Amino acid sequence: MRPSKRNPDQKRVVTMTRNVSKHAEGSCLIKCGDTHVLCIASLEERIPPWLRGQNRGWVTAEYGMLPRATGDRMRREAQAGKQSGRTQEIQRLIGRSLRAVVDLEALGERQITIDCDVLQADGGTRTASITGAWVALNDCIEWMRARGMIAADTKVLKDQVAAISCGIYNGTPVLDLDYLEDSDAETDSNFVMTGKGGIVEIQGTAEGDPFSEDEFAQLMALAKKGIGELVTQQLEAQPQD
Amino acid sequence: MRPSKRNPDQKRVVTMTRNVSKHAEGSCLIKCGDTHVLCIASLEERIPPWLRGQNRGWVTAEYGMLPRATGDRMRREAQAGKQSGRTQEIQRLIGRSLRAVVDLEALGERQITIDCDVLQADGGTRTASITGAWVALNDCIEWMRARGMIAADTKVLKDQVAAISCGIYNGTPVLDLDYLEDSDAETDSNFVMTGKGGIVEIQGTAEGDPFSEDEFAQLMALAKKGIGELVTQQLEAQPQD
Amino acid sequence: MRPSKRNPDQKRVVTMTRNVSKHAEGSCLIKCGDTHVLCIASLEERIPPWLRGQNRGWVTAEYGMLPRATGDRMRREAQAGKQSGRTQEIQRLIGRSLRAVVDLEALGERQITIDCDVLQADGGTRTASITGAWVALNDCIEWMRARGMIAADTKVLKDQVAAISCGIYNGTPVLDLDYLEDSDAETDSNFVMTGKGGIVEIQGTAEGDPFSEDEFAQLMALAKKGIGELVTQQLEAQPQD
Amino acid sequence: MRPSKRNPDQKRVVTMTRNVSKHAEGSCLIKCGDTHVLCIASLEERIPPWLRGQNRGWVTAEYGMLPRATGDRMRREAQAGKQSGRTQEIQRLIGRSLRAVVDLEALGERQITIDCDVLQADGGTRTASITGAWVALNDCIEWMRARGMIAADTKVLKDQVAAISCGIYNGTPVLDLDYLEDSDAETDSNFVMTGKGGIVEIQGTAEGDPFSEDEFAQLMALAKKGIGELVTQQLEAQPQD
Amino acid sequence: MRPSKRNPDQKRVVTMTRNVSKHAEGSCLIKCGDTHVLCIASLEERIPPWLRGQNRGWVTAEYGMLPRATGDRMRREAQAGKQSGRTQEIQRLIGRSLRAVVDLEALGERQITIDCDVLQADGGTRTASITGAWVALNDCIEWMRARGMIAADTKVLKDQVAAISCGIYNGTPVLDLDYLEDSDAETDSNFVMTGKGGIVEIQGTAEGDPFSEDEFAQLMALAKKGIGELVTQQLEAQPQD
Amino acid sequence: MRPSKRNPDQKRVVTMTRNVSKHAEGSCLIKCGDTHVLCIASLEERIPPWLRGQNRGWVTAEYGMLPRATGDRMRREAQAGKQSGRTQEIQRLIGRSLRAVVDLEALGERQITIDCDVLQADGGTRTASITGAWVALNDCIEWMRARGMIAADTKVLKDQVAAISCGIYNGTPVLDLDYLEDSDAETDSNFVMTGKGGIVEIQGTAEGDPFSEDEFAQLMALAKKGIGELVTQQLEAQPQD
User: Where along the chain is phosphate bound (chains A, B, C, D, E, F) (predicted)?
Assistant: First the structure.
């Protein structure tokens, strides 16, 4: 029995609300149960120095947590004077995941930055960030298209991308760990997949004992199911009133 | 005529929603027009080293802005590796303003930190932070009282505190500048006052030409009116559904 | 009775000595009682990047304290690896105050930096810095005029600017707090005014109980008197032997 | 055909030399082809603050690259003033991988740090670091046992751990990518497994197009073969003359 | 002919004024021609952690330059966020030089920090700092003796210490280089010696061509003469009016 | 009797192996007894900004120590976030010493950086770095000559440069201190000399009592002997198998 009473293959209630920022070119507030992440896309007419002259754009991500997003208040990274290794690892993952479905040539010499800021955390913030970030990115690209910056028939996004975690909890493979489950799980794996089911990124970590190939295969099957549901929800997301 | 069509002595529509965080001991989302600030109070059973052994507590504040809270994306302070002078100035102001109405002895040897994070900015973020922070602080203290950490009849908060900005726009003193007005104002003053009308902090700055004593008196009168309305609203704030 | 035996409206003995640096384009050593600040103006033929192409110059300030300027030695900021929030707040105030009386177009595309370094502190270092900085700035501009960089009849400085603190000590409003008084004062306000009496900046803070409008008006009256005396002294300042 | 002329399931020539440091409690120089990593174990009689009073020890890792370990010289991280996100990600991975096979209670209240410094890089530095680090860690524990710090029959290491990368190169799954192959590979996966074949960590990344479940299964099979060879070599490693 | 018209063995006019700080336990303003350094001794009843329990004290130094001490304004180190290599090298040298004549056991478990801040620079700031620092240190120790912290007959300072630079200018060995000479000199050597003529520190650097043993011997002879004069002046230094 | 049983004028066994890096333009692994330093020369087609347009190149050095190069593990500088004063002092010394024998005009507008990384330390790491760095630098220049970047008859290196330490141990001047001797020595001096015997840099420090001119002369005589041997060995260094 999961603490959340969910079935092993049942993910949390997920909502995605678009257009939640007055200023941004694209935005999405994603809630996966009690995990709430604000994903904001910003378009800039400049690219990183190392990309100049290549007729390509860039998509990148930054990640942050409000200090009291968690049960105990954590030190504000701006005050600590640096981003933690965990923060950097996560924002690199979000950026790579998004770029896997972007045609950077089609984007032109521009950069889109997706800021994923966790307002409240209850496990799975990195996977929620990826899922919500794609919605914000998609809206940013449509914003550009509406202004003629991208031609009507140019496909910048090659596919959708979404992510979810799975783990082995009390010996049973389960989908979409919340914080309570995650703290106790023997294994924690994050899966990033496309709308068509291709694998973009896999991160599996044995927290306690090593896991077997068979266990890993069961986790991947759960992830496929969950991500299949998420990509449907991405397309149904509505703007804020 | 103000760009916002408001009368000179009319502040923006303000809403304050309490209890917006699953984890925090007190919280308030304040919206002053399009300026939205999340104010979160965190209680910690520790005090700054320089306060040890004095049988007193401490109340402090931290301030941050999401990178795209503004019209153009700003660099994330955690990535820049330091908080700007502006950020430090604002969080020092919020902390001083709150402490002016707190009986630190009555608090006991504990620290309450109020994190004020700007989700969306349209002028007046520092004054909105102070007004919302008091609501979060008050809820944190009632949370402690409910758990017997503070006696039923102990008054930790001596008064309310709220803040608003005023300025001279096109030659006319006006209340509660939004970003468009602020960019053009000749003078920008922030007033922090208590529920009983005492002055806690005044910061007046001539952006262009110096201002006169008489002009300053008119700004203060506007501020008194606006803060009078805000302290009423603080007491009426409702928790999130 | 003030610890310094001064009358409530009596400021400390102030001396300003010009031309105290072999290298600088303008300089002033200001002594307000035991508070000694070295104000050095440096002209540079470059402007901040965000000002390029606007045919305007810039005036800015930096502030520092020698580690043992105070009663107890403080950590050297260069070794701590950053400037404190207090330091940044003060240098921003000095810069804003000076710019309030500068015609930046008349200056041309150049930057003048005023370094205010406190050699010895006894309260009121920020206001002494502003008063002394104006003298150094004025000499720097005359240095430029003497070399034809500014035309004989171009008015770069629109007015003088000076500053002083006032506070309520033992229930009485008093002028120009020294360290001993400042530590005990109920209220501490800094006033920055022009030679013609216009208000440039007001910063009033209730250290203990909030203060009333009437008390604030008395502080402002004291400040006007004190600044009136300082602007006279600025014009009488003599160069070092 | 691989640029290295190796068969798809053929890893590079690997050598591990133990006892290469005059000072350290355990050390191993691992060479995987032209990738050379110095792995040094240091025992310290102290533990991280958050672990105090739990009767457990800690094993952690740090990772660095000499500036010219790579084809182009990279900036020295000590001079840049911070470790890159990549460096932090790698050292967290090495530490987690080692801890998966350590009985921290059996270690006692001590910390072992494994420094993995890349002298020369040609792809696969993180996996080589893990494989070499286990050898250094094992020697460190035997050093402690020889001095009576660990009882003769206490098993601190529950198993061996080693790592290797696999990828899809020109459409073919291949084992142990070198730099040339890695730059061109469509997919890059790192596998960390124990001596008994349990999975400790999986990191799979699609560099270009997403990959399929079937492709991933082939990579895992290659990894099992390669790691099986590495754990044998770990036990055969000889000390320096 | 030297630009300064001095004879080869003639140092600049040197003055040392003691007791120039209201707060410090010892202080000296040393002027070597146009090089002016404020040397301030601060006594603290604490020692560095690594010295605890050894019944010894510590003497250390910090060095800084006001941004416009030099011909061109240099960036403020507190703003740059770090001390330059040059600054660190110099403050280590000053500290070592002073400790060479201090009996640290006789000092007791206390630390004296000498802050050497260059108000104006014209070459030779590090050697002037050492010479002035000894005077401040001596006064600090007498301040302690007067308060019974050091017994009347305890010798804390074993000797005096002073320093001067020499160099080869236009082929001629000369004493006490000023900035103009230093910029052109072929060789620049700094000598630190005790009152009795013992050598404490020698730093010789060939700026252009290497120098010979014979040349070096001539520089050392000049240094001995100059330092002999300085140690006499140290004892004659008078307090400020 | 020295702990190492060496005669007073006997240096440690020194070996230099060239061509130890697959990527670098020049490299040398120098072993002075148990002190091992990897010296790697990197050629870059860019120069520091302040050197632009002068038709000259630049040679610089960086220095680092692996954390466990020493008896106790030291904190990794990349993690501490800055290079220590000692590190900066040493890398400035290495750079100056090399430049003393380089014709920067003949080098052209290019920069060569010599990274000196200490793999294992037993005293004398800075002098070993200089001696080995010259070998790496020489190979880098010959690499350039072989590719026509420097003409066959252009002399870029005007001479050799090497370094060694001397000190007074138990009252006797001795050559080439190892760590054990260095910890106990009364005096520690580093000498940098050219192949022709010119003095490039002298750094003499009295660790305990001041030393006399005569003692210093004896140290210099030992250094001449040792450096004479080192410059011979530099020319005999062989590439790695």
Answer: 86, 124-126
Closest CB from B83, B198, B220 relative to C211: B198
The overall pTM is greater than 0.95: no
Q: Where are the domains of chain B?
A: 14-239
Q: What angle do CA B75, B78, B79 make, to 5 degrees?
A: 60
Nearest C-alpha in E relative to C20: E120
Q: How far is CA B101 from the centre of its chain?
A: 13
Burial class (CB in 10 A: 0-12, 13-18, 19+), C45: exposed
**A187: confidence class by pLDDT, cuts 50, 70, 90:** confident
Note whether F139 contacts D: Cβ–Cβ < 8 A: no
Spatial separation of the C-alpha atoms in residues D32 and D10, rounded to whole Å: 12
- Residue F95 · residue F59 · CB < 8 Å: yes
Q: Do A201 and D204 touch (CB under 8 A)?
A: yes
Give the model confidence (pLDDT) of D188-235 as tens digits: 899 999 999 999 999 999 877 899 999 999 999 999 999 999 999 999
Measured between alpha carbons, how far is A59 from A110 in angstroms, rounded to an integer?
A: 9
Return the closest-CA partner of residue D238 out of D19, D30, D13: D19
Q: Looking at CA atoms only, how far is residue F192 from chain E in angstroms?
A: 9
Q: In terms of Cα–Cα distance, which of A198, B12, A82, E84 is closest to F91?
A: E84
Strand partners, E122: none
Contact C130, C98 (CB under 8 A): yes
Check whether E126 is labelled as a binding-site residue. Answer: yes
Kindly state the tokens that stand for B142.
């009632």
Asked whether residue C12 carries a pLDDT value surpassing 90, the answer given is yes
ipTM of model: 0.94
DSSP state of E102: B
Residue C19 touches chain E, beta carbons under 8 Å: no
Is E204's Cβ below 8 Å from some Cβ in F? yes
Contact: A77, B78; criterion CB under 8 Å = yes
Distance CA C135, CA C81 (A): 31
Cα–Cα distance for residue pair F125/E21, rounded to 1 Å? 43
Q: Note the pLDDT tens digit of each residue in C182-216.
A: 988 888 899 999 999 999 999 999 877 899 999 99
Cβ A216–D206 below 8 Å, yes or no?
no
In chain A, positions 85-124, which contact chain D (CB-CB < 8 Å)? 85-86, 88-89, 91-92, 96, 100
Backbone angles phi, psi at B149, to 5 degrees: -80, -20
CB within 8 Å of B152: residues ≥ 6 apart = B145
Kindly list the partner chains of chain E, i.e. chains with 3 or more CB atom pairs below 8 Å.
C, F
Cβ within 8 Å, pair E117-C66? yes
Q: Is the pLDDT of residue E140 over 90?
A: yes
Q: Residue A213 is nearest to which of D199, D201, D212, comparing CB atoms?
A: D199
Residue A216: φ, ψ to 5°: -60, -40
For residue B87, the chain A residues in CB contact (below 8 A) are 78
Residues of B in contact with A62 (CB under 8 A): 67, 76, 79
What radius of gyration do chain D's Cα atoms show? 18
Q: In CATH terms, is domain A14-239 a member of 3.90.1150.10?
A: no
pLDDT reading at C224 higher than 80: yes
Chain E, nearest residue to F103 by Cα: E208
* Residue B38, token pair as written in the block: 């999340």
Angle B85-99/B125-146 helices, nearest 10 degrees? Answer: 40
DSSP string, F125-142: HHHHHHHHHHHHHHHHHH
Are C14 and C30 a contacting pair, CB within 8 Å?
yes
Q: Considering only CB atoms, which chain E residues are within 8 Å of C44?
A: 73
Residue stretches of the annotated binding site of F for phosphate: 86, 124-126
Task: List the binding residues of F.
Answer: 86, 124-126
Looking at the predicted structure, is the pLDDT value of residue F117 above 90? yes
Say how many Å lie between the first and final Cα of chain B, rounded. Answer: 38
